[in-house]
Amino acid sequence: MKHRGIIGFVVTSEVRPGVYLPEPEERTYYMDVLLDTIYHHPSSYVNDNIEVRNKFSVVSDSYIKKHLSSIAYVEWGGSKWKVESAKSIPPRVEITIGGVWHDERSN
Questions:
Q1: Cα-flanking dihedrals φ and ψ of residue 45, to 5°?
Q2: Which of 52, 63, 99, 101 is most buried per CB count within 10 Å?
């Protein structure tokens, strides 16, 4: 299955001398969905916790090669999911996602 979605990178940049802050940057990529799996974990709340174990394959470009370790989340199904692993297999990058991504803007 094909998917056009956003990959979020969190890169630390210097905002003023000696002060570094994480700066999110989103880029749109075309991806192949290699694995589409959802796990429901029982919880003490009304709804179960959901974990998505999807795997995507993206053709790498110069930006994704340079910022491979900064890949933080993938947008899938209207939500942002945190990246558990990103593996370079030239000319592609394989990304595995897990739980829901939380950042300052979503809280």
A1: -90, 175
A2: 52
Structure-block tokens of residue 41: 């974990």
Rounded distance, CA 3 to CA 86, Å?
A: 17
For residue 88, give both structure tokens: 């370079």
Tell me: the pLDDT tens digits for 48-100?
677 778 999 999 999 999 999 999 999 998 999 999 999 999 999 999 998 88
In total, the chain counts a number of residues equal to 107
Distance of alpha carbon 38 from alpha carbon 21, whole angstroms: 33
- Distance in angstroms (rounded) separating the CA atoms of residues 66 and 68: 6
Which one, of 77, 82, 79, 86, lies nearest residue 101 by Cα? 82
Is-contact 41 48, C-beta < 8 A?
Answer: yes
User: Are 18 and 45 in contact, with CB atoms under 8 Å apart?
Assistant: no
How far, in Å, CA of 9 to CA of 67, rounded? 7
